[in-house]
Amino acid sequence: MLRLFNHYVPANAFAQILFDSVLLFAAILIAAAAQFSGGVALVESVAPSALIFATIMIMLNSALGLYRGGPTSSLYDTLARILLSLLASIPIAYAVFRVLPWGSFDQRQGELTVVLILGSILALRGFVVGAAGEPLWRRRVMVIGTGDEAAAVDHSLRNLHSRALQVIGFYPAVNNDDVAVSNHRILPSNASLLEAVRAHDVNEIIVAVRERRGGSMSLKQLLDCKLAGVKVLDLSSFYERVRGQVRIDSLKASWLIYGEGFRQGWLRSAIKRTFDLVVGAAILLMALPIMLVTAVAIAIESGMPIFYTQERVGRGGRVFHVIKFRSMRTDAEKDGKPRWASAKDDRVTRVGRVIRKTRIDELPQLLNVIRGEMSLVGPRPERPYFVDQLARDIPFFAVRHSVKPGLTGWAQVRYQYGSTVDDAVQKLQYDLYYVKNHTLFLDVLILAETVRVVLTGEGAH
Protein backbone atom coordinates (compact mmCIF):
# COMPACT_ATOMS: atom_id res chain seq x y z
CA MET A 1 0.00 0.00 0.00
CA LEU A 2 1.09 3.54 -0.79
CA ARG A 3 -0.13 6.48 1.26
CA LEU A 4 -1.07 9.43 -0.93
CA PHE A 5 -2.45 12.53 0.81
CA ASN A 6 -3.27 10.49 3.94
CA HIS A 7 -5.20 7.87 1.93
CA TYR A 8 -3.99 4.33 1.28
CA VAL A 9 -3.77 3.26 -2.37
CA PRO A 10 -2.84 -0.32 -3.46
CA ALA A 11 0.72 -0.22 -4.81
CA ASN A 12 -0.07 -2.67 -7.63
CA ALA A 13 -3.04 -0.62 -8.84
CA PHE A 14 -0.93 2.54 -8.67
CA ALA A 15 1.78 0.88 -10.79
CA GLN A 16 -0.80 -0.25 -13.36
CA ILE A 17 -2.31 3.24 -13.54
CA LEU A 18 1.13 4.79 -13.97
CA PHE A 19 2.05 2.31 -16.72
CA ASP A 20 -1.17 2.92 -18.66
CA SER A 21 -0.80 6.70 -18.32
CA VAL A 22 2.74 6.60 -19.73
CA LEU A 23 1.62 4.29 -22.55
CA LEU A 24 -1.25 6.58 -23.58
CA PHE A 25 0.96 9.68 -23.29
CA ALA A 26 3.61 8.07 -25.49
CA ALA A 27 0.97 7.01 -28.04
CA ILE A 28 -0.13 10.63 -28.53
CA LEU A 29 3.47 11.80 -28.97
CA ILE A 30 4.12 9.05 -31.52
CA ALA A 31 0.97 10.03 -33.43
CA ALA A 32 2.17 13.65 -33.46
CA ALA A 33 5.70 12.75 -34.52
CA ALA A 34 4.36 10.61 -37.37
CA GLN A 35 2.82 13.65 -39.05
CA PHE A 36 6.17 15.14 -40.00
CA SER A 37 9.66 13.75 -40.18
CA GLY A 38 11.85 15.12 -37.40
CA GLY A 39 8.91 16.91 -35.79
CA VAL A 40 10.60 17.51 -32.43
CA ALA A 41 9.10 20.97 -32.05
CA LEU A 42 5.63 19.57 -32.77
CA VAL A 43 6.07 16.86 -30.15
CA GLU A 44 7.19 19.43 -27.57
CA SER A 45 4.12 21.59 -28.25
CA VAL A 46 1.81 18.59 -27.99
CA ALA A 47 3.36 17.14 -24.79
CA PRO A 48 1.50 19.32 -22.19
CA SER A 49 -1.92 18.57 -23.69
CA ALA A 50 -1.00 14.90 -24.12
CA LEU A 51 -0.07 14.67 -20.43
CA ILE A 52 -3.36 16.30 -19.36
CA PHE A 53 -5.37 14.03 -21.67
CA ALA A 54 -3.68 10.85 -20.46
CA THR A 55 -4.09 11.85 -16.82
CA ILE A 56 -7.79 12.67 -17.16
CA MET A 57 -8.64 9.46 -19.01
CA ILE A 58 -6.76 7.10 -16.69
CA MET A 59 -8.13 8.82 -13.57
CA LEU A 60 -11.66 8.52 -14.98
CA ASN A 61 -11.34 4.82 -15.62
CA SER A 62 -9.60 4.05 -12.33
CA ALA A 63 -12.52 5.78 -10.60
CA LEU A 64 -14.97 3.67 -12.62
CA GLY A 65 -13.39 0.50 -11.22
CA LEU A 66 -11.18 -0.66 -14.08
CA TYR A 67 -8.33 -1.37 -11.63
CA ARG A 68 -10.49 -3.05 -8.97
CA GLY A 69 -9.98 -6.60 -10.18
CA GLY A 70 -9.39 -9.48 -7.82
CA PRO A 71 -9.77 -13.17 -7.16
CA THR A 72 -13.58 -12.95 -6.99
CA SER A 73 -14.04 -11.14 -10.31
CA SER A 74 -16.15 -13.22 -12.70
CA LEU A 75 -16.04 -12.99 -16.48
CA TYR A 76 -19.35 -11.13 -16.36
CA ASP A 77 -17.94 -8.60 -13.87
CA THR A 78 -14.85 -8.16 -16.04
CA LEU A 79 -16.88 -7.59 -19.22
CA ALA A 80 -19.25 -5.20 -17.43
CA ARG A 81 -16.32 -3.20 -16.06
CA ILE A 82 -14.68 -2.96 -19.49
CA LEU A 83 -17.95 -1.97 -21.18
CA LEU A 84 -18.64 0.70 -18.55
CA SER A 85 -15.14 2.12 -18.96
CA LEU A 86 -15.41 2.21 -22.74
CA LEU A 87 -18.89 3.78 -22.76
CA ALA A 88 -17.76 6.50 -20.35
CA SER A 89 -14.29 7.03 -21.82
CA ILE A 90 -14.79 7.25 -25.57
CA PRO A 91 -17.26 10.21 -25.61
CA ILE A 92 -15.28 12.05 -22.93
CA ALA A 93 -12.04 11.29 -24.78
CA TYR A 94 -13.38 12.93 -27.94
CA ALA A 95 -14.62 15.95 -25.96
CA VAL A 96 -11.39 16.42 -24.00
CA PHE A 97 -9.27 15.88 -27.11
CA ARG A 98 -11.12 18.66 -28.95
CA VAL A 99 -10.95 21.14 -26.07
CA LEU A 100 -7.22 20.87 -25.35
CA PRO A 101 -4.79 23.08 -27.35
CA TRP A 102 -2.70 21.00 -29.78
CA GLY A 103 -0.81 23.68 -31.72
CA SER A 104 -0.13 22.59 -35.30
CA PHE A 105 -1.01 18.98 -34.56
CA ASP A 106 -3.88 17.88 -36.84
CA GLN A 107 -6.55 16.75 -34.37
CA ARG A 108 -8.71 15.05 -36.99
CA GLN A 109 -5.82 12.88 -38.07
CA GLY A 110 -4.76 11.96 -34.56
CA GLU A 111 -7.94 11.69 -32.50
CA LEU A 112 -9.22 8.44 -34.03
CA THR A 113 -5.85 6.76 -33.59
CA VAL A 114 -5.55 7.95 -29.98
CA VAL A 115 -9.10 6.92 -29.06
CA LEU A 116 -8.56 3.46 -30.57
CA ILE A 117 -5.36 3.12 -28.56
CA LEU A 118 -7.24 4.23 -25.43
CA GLY A 119 -9.92 1.60 -26.06
CA SER A 120 -7.30 -1.10 -26.56
CA ILE A 121 -5.52 -0.14 -23.33
CA LEU A 122 -8.78 -0.22 -21.34
CA ALA A 123 -9.86 -3.56 -22.77
CA LEU A 124 -6.45 -5.13 -22.20
CA ARG A 125 -6.16 -3.76 -18.67
CA GLY A 126 -9.69 -4.87 -17.80
CA PHE A 127 -8.97 -8.47 -18.79
CA VAL A 128 -5.52 -8.52 -17.20
CA VAL A 129 -6.74 -7.11 -13.87
CA GLY A 130 -10.17 -8.74 -13.83
CA ALA A 131 -9.45 -12.19 -15.24
CA ALA A 132 -5.91 -12.79 -14.02
CA GLY A 133 -5.89 -10.50 -11.00
CA GLU A 134 -2.24 -11.27 -10.34
CA PRO A 135 -0.31 -8.47 -8.64
CA LEU A 136 3.02 -7.24 -9.93
CA TRP A 137 4.56 -8.23 -6.61
CA ARG A 138 3.42 -9.81 -3.36
CA ARG A 139 4.23 -9.02 0.25
CA ARG A 140 4.43 -11.99 2.60
CA VAL A 141 2.52 -11.45 5.83
CA MET A 142 2.85 -13.24 9.17
CA VAL A 143 -0.04 -12.87 11.64
CA ILE A 144 0.72 -12.93 15.37
CA GLY A 145 -2.08 -14.82 17.08
CA THR A 146 -4.39 -17.73 16.30
CA GLY A 147 -7.71 -16.53 17.73
CA ASP A 148 -10.75 -14.75 16.34
CA GLU A 149 -8.84 -11.54 15.59
CA ALA A 150 -6.26 -13.47 13.55
CA ALA A 151 -9.01 -15.26 11.63
CA ALA A 152 -10.70 -11.90 10.94
CA VAL A 153 -7.43 -10.52 9.53
CA ASP A 154 -7.10 -13.54 7.25
CA HIS A 155 -10.71 -13.16 6.10
CA SER A 156 -10.17 -9.46 5.34
CA LEU A 157 -7.11 -10.17 3.21
CA ARG A 158 -8.86 -12.97 1.32
CA ASN A 159 -11.69 -10.59 0.38
CA LEU A 160 -9.52 -7.75 -0.86
CA HIS A 161 -9.73 -6.79 -4.53
CA SER A 162 -5.94 -7.08 -4.65
CA ARG A 163 -3.99 -10.22 -3.73
CA ALA A 164 -0.79 -8.31 -3.07
CA LEU A 165 -0.77 -9.38 0.62
CA GLN A 166 -0.32 -13.11 1.23
CA VAL A 167 -0.69 -14.65 4.70
CA ILE A 168 2.01 -17.30 5.02
CA GLY A 169 0.98 -18.45 8.50
CA PHE A 170 0.05 -17.67 12.10
CA TYR A 171 2.65 -17.38 14.86
CA PRO A 172 1.21 -18.28 18.32
CA ALA A 173 1.24 -15.44 20.82
CA VAL A 174 2.15 -15.68 24.50
CA ASN A 175 -0.89 -16.32 26.74
CA ASN A 176 -3.08 -16.89 23.70
CA ASP A 177 -4.54 -20.39 23.71
CA ASP A 178 -7.54 -19.65 21.46
CA VAL A 179 -7.41 -21.30 18.03
CA ALA A 180 -9.78 -20.09 15.30
CA VAL A 181 -7.54 -20.79 12.31
CA SER A 182 -6.57 -24.00 10.55
CA ASN A 183 -3.99 -25.98 12.54
CA HIS A 184 -1.85 -26.65 9.47
CA ARG A 185 -1.35 -22.88 9.02
CA ILE A 186 0.01 -22.38 12.55
CA LEU A 187 3.79 -21.87 12.46
CA PRO A 188 6.14 -23.59 14.95
CA SER A 189 6.99 -21.34 17.89
CA ASN A 190 10.13 -23.18 19.02
CA ALA A 191 12.26 -20.59 17.17
CA SER A 192 12.32 -16.88 18.01
CA LEU A 193 10.02 -14.53 16.14
CA LEU A 194 12.91 -13.02 14.17
CA GLU A 195 14.16 -16.46 13.16
CA ALA A 196 10.67 -17.43 11.99
CA VAL A 197 10.42 -14.19 10.00
CA ARG A 198 13.71 -14.86 8.25
CA ALA A 199 12.91 -18.52 7.63
CA HIS A 200 9.64 -17.64 5.86
CA ASP A 201 10.91 -14.48 4.12
CA VAL A 202 8.27 -12.30 5.82
CA ASN A 203 7.79 -8.67 4.78
CA GLU A 204 5.11 -7.65 7.28
CA ILE A 205 3.85 -8.67 10.71
CA ILE A 206 0.29 -8.03 11.89
CA VAL A 207 -0.24 -8.30 15.65
CA ALA A 208 -3.80 -9.69 15.80
CA VAL A 209 -4.30 -10.23 19.53
CA ARG A 210 -6.02 -8.37 22.35
CA GLU A 211 -3.87 -6.94 25.09
CA ARG A 212 -3.77 -9.32 28.04
CA ARG A 213 -2.13 -9.31 31.42
CA GLY A 214 1.43 -10.48 31.07
CA GLY A 215 1.71 -9.32 27.46
CA SER A 216 0.73 -11.06 24.25
CA MET A 217 4.09 -10.75 22.50
CA SER A 218 7.52 -9.63 23.61
CA LEU A 219 8.02 -6.02 22.58
CA LYS A 220 11.74 -6.76 22.22
CA GLN A 221 11.02 -9.46 19.63
CA LEU A 222 8.76 -7.12 17.67
CA LEU A 223 11.37 -4.37 17.87
CA ASP A 224 14.06 -6.77 16.59
CA CYS A 225 11.85 -7.54 13.57
CA LYS A 226 11.19 -3.87 12.89
CA LEU A 227 14.91 -3.03 13.09
CA ALA A 228 15.51 -5.86 10.61
CA GLY A 229 13.31 -4.05 8.07
CA VAL A 230 10.02 -5.88 8.66
CA LYS A 231 6.89 -3.72 8.87
CA VAL A 232 4.90 -4.24 12.10
CA LEU A 233 1.21 -3.27 12.33
CA ASP A 234 -1.36 -3.44 15.11
CA LEU A 235 -5.02 -4.21 14.42
CA SER A 236 -6.08 -0.55 14.20
CA SER A 237 -3.41 0.30 11.64
CA PHE A 238 -4.10 -2.88 9.65
CA TYR A 239 -7.81 -2.21 9.22
CA GLU A 240 -7.21 1.44 8.42
CA ARG A 241 -4.75 0.50 5.69
CA VAL A 242 -6.48 -2.43 3.97
CA ARG A 243 -10.18 -1.83 4.71
CA GLY A 244 -10.39 1.96 4.93
CA GLN A 245 -11.87 1.66 8.42
CA VAL A 246 -11.09 2.83 11.93
CA ARG A 247 -12.26 -0.19 13.92
CA ILE A 248 -14.30 0.59 17.02
CA ASP A 249 -13.46 -2.70 18.73
CA SER A 250 -9.75 -1.81 18.75
CA LEU A 251 -10.14 1.93 19.34
CA LYS A 252 -9.14 3.89 22.40
CA ALA A 253 -9.73 7.55 23.24
CA SER A 254 -5.95 8.05 23.66
CA TRP A 255 -5.42 6.93 20.04
CA LEU A 256 -7.89 9.57 18.85
CA ILE A 257 -6.13 12.24 20.88
CA TYR A 258 -2.47 11.42 20.31
CA GLY A 259 -2.58 9.67 16.94
CA GLU A 260 -2.18 11.19 13.52
CA GLY A 261 -5.15 12.68 11.70
CA PHE A 262 -8.43 14.17 12.98
CA ARG A 263 -7.15 17.65 12.13
CA GLN A 264 -9.79 20.29 11.45
CA GLY A 265 -7.69 23.38 10.66
CA TRP A 266 -9.00 26.56 9.05
CA LEU A 267 -7.04 25.99 5.82
CA ARG A 268 -8.55 22.55 5.33
CA SER A 269 -12.03 23.93 6.02
CA ALA A 270 -11.52 26.84 3.60
CA ILE A 271 -10.35 24.53 0.79
CA LYS A 272 -13.26 22.16 1.40
CA ARG A 273 -15.80 25.02 1.44
CA THR A 274 -14.45 26.50 -1.81
CA PHE A 275 -14.57 23.07 -3.45
CA ASP A 276 -18.16 22.56 -2.24
CA LEU A 277 -19.33 25.91 -3.64
CA VAL A 278 -17.66 25.61 -7.05
CA VAL A 279 -18.40 21.93 -7.73
CA GLY A 280 -21.80 21.98 -6.02
CA ALA A 281 -23.02 24.91 -8.12
CA ALA A 282 -21.72 23.25 -11.31
CA ILE A 283 -23.47 19.95 -10.54
CA LEU A 284 -26.69 21.79 -9.66
CA LEU A 285 -26.72 23.59 -13.02
CA MET A 286 -26.05 20.37 -14.94
CA ALA A 287 -28.70 18.48 -12.94
CA LEU A 288 -31.53 21.01 -13.38
CA PRO A 289 -33.11 19.21 -16.39
CA ILE A 290 -33.08 15.88 -14.53
CA MET A 291 -34.54 17.55 -11.43
CA LEU A 292 -37.34 19.12 -13.49
CA VAL A 293 -38.31 15.76 -15.03
CA THR A 294 -38.22 14.15 -11.58
CA ALA A 295 -40.46 16.83 -10.10
CA VAL A 296 -43.04 16.30 -12.86
CA ALA A 297 -42.93 12.49 -12.43
CA ILE A 298 -43.50 12.73 -8.67
CA ALA A 299 -46.41 15.17 -9.14
CA ILE A 300 -48.08 12.91 -11.73
CA GLU A 301 -47.77 9.73 -9.67
CA SER A 302 -48.55 10.88 -6.14
CA GLY A 303 -49.26 14.60 -6.23
CA MET A 304 -47.80 17.22 -3.92
CA PRO A 305 -45.52 17.87 -2.16
CA ILE A 306 -42.60 17.22 -4.52
CA PHE A 307 -39.90 17.90 -1.97
CA TYR A 308 -39.44 16.37 1.44
CA THR A 309 -37.76 18.15 4.34
CA GLN A 310 -36.59 16.48 7.50
CA GLU A 311 -34.54 17.36 10.56
CA ARG A 312 -30.98 16.03 10.47
CA VAL A 313 -27.97 16.48 12.77
CA GLY A 314 -25.05 18.39 11.27
CA ARG A 315 -21.61 19.54 12.33
CA GLY A 316 -21.26 20.12 16.06
CA GLY A 317 -24.65 18.51 16.72
CA ARG A 318 -26.57 21.41 15.15
CA VAL A 319 -29.93 20.47 13.65
CA PHE A 320 -30.85 21.56 10.12
CA HIS A 321 -33.53 20.65 7.57
CA VAL A 322 -32.35 18.45 4.71
CA ILE A 323 -34.10 18.77 1.32
CA LYS A 324 -34.83 15.71 -0.82
CA PHE A 325 -37.20 14.65 -3.56
CA ARG A 326 -40.11 12.80 -1.96
CA SER A 327 -39.68 9.09 -2.70
CA MET A 328 -42.26 7.70 -0.25
CA ARG A 329 -45.99 7.97 0.16
CA THR A 330 -47.22 11.09 1.92
CA ASP A 331 -48.45 8.92 4.84
CA ALA A 332 -45.10 7.09 5.27
CA GLU A 333 -44.92 7.99 8.98
CA LYS A 334 -48.56 8.67 9.77
CA ASP A 335 -48.12 7.16 13.25
CA GLY A 336 -45.46 9.79 14.02
CA LYS A 337 -42.82 7.20 14.92
CA PRO A 338 -39.46 7.58 13.14
CA ARG A 339 -38.33 4.44 11.32
CA TRP A 340 -35.24 3.59 9.31
CA ALA A 341 -35.90 3.15 5.62
CA SER A 342 -35.10 -0.37 4.41
CA ALA A 343 -33.75 -1.57 1.08
CA LYS A 344 -37.18 -2.92 -0.02
CA ASP A 345 -39.40 -0.49 1.87
CA ASP A 346 -43.06 -0.86 0.88
CA ARG A 347 -43.60 2.85 1.58
CA VAL A 348 -41.51 3.78 -1.47
CA THR A 349 -43.41 4.81 -4.62
CA ARG A 350 -42.62 3.55 -8.13
CA VAL A 351 -40.89 6.81 -9.05
CA GLY A 352 -39.24 6.70 -5.64
CA ARG A 353 -37.61 3.35 -6.37
CA VAL A 354 -36.01 4.75 -9.51
CA ILE A 355 -34.75 7.99 -8.01
CA ARG A 356 -33.45 6.24 -4.87
CA LYS A 357 -31.59 3.65 -6.94
CA THR A 358 -29.97 6.36 -9.08
CA ARG A 359 -29.50 8.78 -6.13
CA ILE A 360 -31.56 11.44 -7.91
CA ASP A 361 -33.58 11.92 -4.71
CA GLU A 362 -30.43 13.36 -3.12
CA LEU A 363 -29.91 16.14 -5.71
CA PRO A 364 -31.93 18.84 -3.87
CA GLN A 365 -29.40 18.51 -1.04
CA LEU A 366 -27.05 20.51 -3.27
CA LEU A 367 -28.98 23.51 -1.89
CA ASN A 368 -27.96 22.42 1.62
CA VAL A 369 -24.36 22.24 0.37
CA ILE A 370 -24.45 25.75 -1.11
CA ARG A 371 -26.03 27.10 2.09
CA GLY A 372 -23.17 25.59 4.09
CA GLU A 373 -25.24 23.12 6.12
CA MET A 374 -23.71 20.14 4.30
CA SER A 375 -20.65 19.27 2.27
CA LEU A 376 -20.45 17.32 -0.99
CA VAL A 377 -18.55 14.59 0.87
CA GLY A 378 -18.92 13.61 4.50
CA PRO A 379 -20.77 11.25 6.86
CA ARG A 380 -24.44 10.69 6.09
CA PRO A 381 -26.62 13.03 8.21
CA GLU A 382 -28.90 11.14 10.57
CA ARG A 383 -32.16 12.15 12.24
CA PRO A 384 -31.95 13.42 15.86
CA TYR A 385 -34.04 10.48 17.09
CA PHE A 386 -31.57 7.95 15.69
CA VAL A 387 -28.52 9.99 16.70
CA ASP A 388 -29.64 9.89 20.35
CA GLN A 389 -30.15 6.13 20.12
CA LEU A 390 -26.88 5.39 18.31
CA ALA A 391 -24.82 7.69 20.56
CA ARG A 392 -26.00 5.65 23.56
CA ASP A 393 -25.26 2.27 21.96
CA ILE A 394 -22.10 2.96 19.94
CA PRO A 395 -18.88 4.43 21.41
CA PHE A 396 -17.31 7.41 19.60
CA PHE A 397 -20.43 7.93 17.46
CA ALA A 398 -20.33 11.70 18.11
CA VAL A 399 -16.88 11.96 16.46
CA ARG A 400 -18.57 11.89 13.03
CA HIS A 401 -20.20 15.25 13.87
CA SER A 402 -16.81 17.00 13.91
CA VAL A 403 -17.19 17.54 10.14
CA LYS A 404 -20.15 18.56 8.00
CA PRO A 405 -22.41 15.75 6.81
CA GLY A 406 -22.15 14.92 3.14
CA LEU A 407 -24.27 14.36 0.05
CA THR A 408 -22.13 11.26 -0.43
CA GLY A 409 -19.42 9.73 1.71
CA TRP A 410 -16.80 7.05 2.26
CA ALA A 411 -19.31 4.81 4.05
CA GLN A 412 -21.85 5.13 1.22
CA VAL A 413 -19.43 3.96 -1.46
CA ARG A 414 -17.82 1.24 0.66
CA TYR A 415 -20.78 -0.37 2.43
CA GLN A 416 -24.14 -1.62 1.20
CA TYR A 417 -27.39 -0.09 2.33
CA GLY A 418 -28.29 -0.99 5.91
CA SER A 419 -30.93 -0.10 8.48
CA THR A 420 -29.84 -1.66 11.78
CA VAL A 421 -27.58 -0.73 14.66
CA ASP A 422 -25.00 -3.26 13.41
CA ASP A 423 -25.05 -1.55 10.02
CA ALA A 424 -24.60 1.80 11.76
CA VAL A 425 -21.50 0.42 13.52
CA GLN A 426 -20.00 -0.71 10.23
CA LYS A 427 -20.71 2.64 8.58
CA LEU A 428 -19.29 4.53 11.57
CA GLN A 429 -15.97 2.72 11.11
CA TYR A 430 -15.78 4.10 7.56
CA ASP A 431 -16.94 7.53 8.74
CA LEU A 432 -14.18 7.61 11.36
CA TYR A 433 -11.63 6.82 8.65
CA TYR A 434 -12.94 9.75 6.62
CA VAL A 435 -12.93 12.15 9.59
CA LYS A 436 -9.36 11.09 10.38
CA ASN A 437 -7.97 11.32 6.84
CA HIS A 438 -10.20 13.63 4.81
CA THR A 439 -8.43 15.72 2.19
CA LEU A 440 -9.40 17.22 -1.15
CA PHE A 441 -7.82 14.16 -2.82
CA LEU A 442 -10.08 11.79 -0.86
CA ASP A 443 -13.14 13.96 -1.59
CA VAL A 444 -12.47 13.79 -5.34
CA LEU A 445 -11.92 10.03 -5.10
CA ILE A 446 -15.22 9.53 -3.26
CA LEU A 447 -17.13 11.64 -5.80
CA ALA A 448 -15.67 9.54 -8.60
CA GLU A 449 -16.55 6.35 -6.72
CA THR A 450 -20.10 7.68 -6.29
CA VAL A 451 -20.41 7.98 -10.08
CA ARG A 452 -19.34 4.34 -10.41
CA VAL A 453 -21.80 3.23 -7.71
CA VAL A 454 -24.67 5.05 -9.43
CA LEU A 455 -23.79 3.71 -12.89
CA THR A 456 -23.41 0.11 -11.69
CA GLY A 457 -26.31 0.18 -9.22
CA GLU A 458 -24.14 -0.91 -6.28
CA GLY A 459 -25.38 -0.10 -2.80
CA ALA A 460 -28.75 1.10 -4.04
CA HIS A 461 -30.98 2.41 -1.29
TrEMBL record:
Keywords for this protein: Membrane, Transferase, Transmembrane, Transmembrane helix
Main location: membrane
GO MF annotations, alphabetized: undecaprenyl-phosphate glucose phosphotransferase activity
Top-level taxonomic group: Bacteria
InterPro entries, per database record: Bact_transf, EPS_sugar_tfrase, Sugar_tfrase_EpsB_2
Coiled-coil portions: none
Transmembrane feature ranges: 12-34, 46-67, 79-100, 112-132, 277-300
Record's keyword annotation contains Transmembrane helix: yes
GO CC terms of this entry: membrane
GO terms, biological process: colanic acid biosynthetic process
Location relative to the cell: Membrane
Membrane topology recorded in Swiss-Prot or TrEMBL: Multi-pass membrane protein
Residue ranges annotated for the Bacterial sugar transferase domain, each copy included: 272-455
Family affiliation: Belongs to the bacterial sugar transferase family.
Protein name (database record): Sugar transferase (PEP-CTERM system associated)
